[in-house]
Structures are given as structure tokens and as C-alpha cells.
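thought: user wants a sequence for this fold. calling inverse folding tool.
action: design(structure=
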């Protein structure tokens, strides 16, 4: 199987609120909308927002309130960019879970939760390259 991820779908409690967070708060633009779902084109991957109950039904998984153990990362070119993204997320209504700090693996990272509780890491890894098109080279 080819090593790639094509789309990350986040189950959200309120699609309108989620759209405001990502579009007005973080400044993202939707690539496509359909009844009950919104798609965003990211560098080399897509992100979808889909009603949490509808996603649970589609995946045949119960909504049980536990942390899923999955985080989504936004890697940045500099520590200052990490700080700026965390500040923008906080201003848009995110909860800062861990302020940015230097970490054991030699980088700099912090975490926020969006209004639906999805955990995002914002990180700078000096060993990795963020290409001009936004894609990551490990």
C-alpha cells in the first residue's frame, strides 16, 4: 500500500460554529461544501468537517467522550510562526492545552483544542523542511 494520507475528517457538534472557527478564526477557505460537510484543501491533503453524529453513524463507532489518542499537526518554519498560530487559534476560540515550549526531540511545540475538542499540535522541527508549497519533507 502507498504511504499517504488523503483526507482527515473531523466530527463536529455544530458545523456552522466549526466553519466560523476555521474560516473566520484561522482564515481558511473551503474548497467545496455539500449538505452537512465542508472540505478544505491543505498542502497535499484535505480536511473535512462533518457532523459528529453523522460521522459516528457512518463509521459505526459510538460517541463515548474519550480522547481518541489522535492529534493533527501543523508544522511551521520557525518558533515565531508556532507562537503566532497558537495566538490566532486562541483568539478564534481554541483552548490552549500546552503553551509552546522547547521539547525533548529538539523542536518547539504547543497544543490547542478546537471548539469540538480536536487536538492540534503546532510545531517547529528544525530537522524537517516545510517546502514552498507547504508540504512537509521528513
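)
observation: tool returned 138 residues.
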Amino acid at each position: 500500500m502507498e504511504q499517504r494520507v488523503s483526507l482527515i475528517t473531523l466530527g463536529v457538534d455544530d458545523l456552522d460554529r466549526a466553519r466560523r472557527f476555521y474560516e473566520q478564526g484561522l482564515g481558511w477557505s473551503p474548497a467545496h461544501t455539500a449538505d452537512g460537510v465542508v472540505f478544505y484543501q491543505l498542502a497535499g491533503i484535505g480536511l473535512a468537517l462533518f457532523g459528529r453524529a453523522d460521522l459516528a453513524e457512518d463509521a459505526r463507532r459510538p460517541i463515548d467522550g474519550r480522547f481518541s489518542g489522535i492529534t493533527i499537526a501543523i508544522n511551521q518554519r520557525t518558533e515565531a510562526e508556532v507562537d503566532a498560530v497558537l495566538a490566532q487559534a486562541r483568539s478564534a476560540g481554541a483552548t490552549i492545552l500546552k503553551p509552546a515550549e522547547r521539547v525533548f526531540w529538539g523542536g518547539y511545540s504547543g497544543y490547542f483544542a478546537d471548539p469540538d475538542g480536536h487536538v492540534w499540535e503546532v510545531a517547529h522541527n528544525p530537522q524537517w523542511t516545510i517546502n514552498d508549497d507547504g508540504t512537509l519533507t521528513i
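thought: summarizing for user.
answer: Here is the designed sequence. The chain has a mean pLDDT of 93.
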